[in-house]
Amino acid sequence: MTMTLGLKRRTATILATCICISLGTANAFNPRVSDPSLITYAAAQGITPEVALERLELRRIAGEINARAKREAPGTYGGMEVIHLPKYHIVFRFTGNAGAQLSRYTANPNFVAATVPRPIALVQAVRDEVMEVLAERGVESIASIDTAKSIIVVEAENAAEARFHLRELLDTHKYIEIKGRSSFPTPFDIKGGMEGTGERGGSRFNFTLGFTVVDGNGKVGVAGAGHSPDVFAALEGQPFTMKHENEKDLGSYDVQWFTQNPGGTLKKQSNTIRTRNPASPEMEITNTRGLSSLEQGDVVCKSGRTTNYTCGTILDPDFPYTRRSDQRFGPWILIEPFAQYRNFALQGDSLVSRIKRNTF
What we know:
The chain is of the alpha+beta class. It is built from 6 helices and 22 strands. A hairpin with a 5-residue loop joins strand 2 (77-83) and strand 3. It is globular and about 60 Å long. The two termini are 25 Å apart.
């Protein structure tokens, strides 16, 4: 399922982790125009692959500035946002004299300063406190940050109940808005690979096989979404089983891992991921990066068995969502798909990893 945020013709998708072939770092790409993610982004923006590569370099530099500002100016830094249309630029927000503060880091004309009333670290801390309260009270809700206005927007199944439980925070922090919401998404992971079928709780599910991992003892296995099936039944339509080792499927750490069953002939495992994109049917994972490298406005692509290869823009890289049924508390990633895709992802795309080109 996906969630709609009032976006015409498109939906936004919540991800815990995703196979996202991201345009966030230039040095993660071989600068060839045959790169499928780069071509997809260039086509969506109406630019050449060469211009897209230039934007990747700008994003790499911006990422370094973003990390420095978070570290050096937590009391004034308001965060960054990548703006793709109508003109590509990257906004850095500060409290006070934004231009003077940005000038300490760069004079690049593609980097624009903007003033906000409060630092992003404060807004994020308050947002997390808001969601913790609602989770404890069992109020189904989501919360996003409007970085341009520096406010928190809470959408709850019962707005009046949410206001009651948040009354103390609302008295202290006047930048919290609460709205009612009638429907909520089902969060799921998005990862790419081989098509699988499994069982959980007596029901059968389709999924997309995850990536190869090795534990501290050198045991080779496959990792994936914790909420996906516990029991393997088939892989690529053929009977196939794996041993379920362990999992955690509540909160923001949603993961499980399997190993091949002992005995018999073990199948070869590699770092190759099937992308379900004709232009680049397989990709090799050669590096790793953390989710903390993602920022609002970054472009990511994913591959899965249900919706195949899709790309979109990150609306919120740290998106909390509380489910009334089990009081899950994010954060997840909120993504708006490009106009040519109806959905970024659907059920069946789960049990895979997030990839940034060849980087997991």
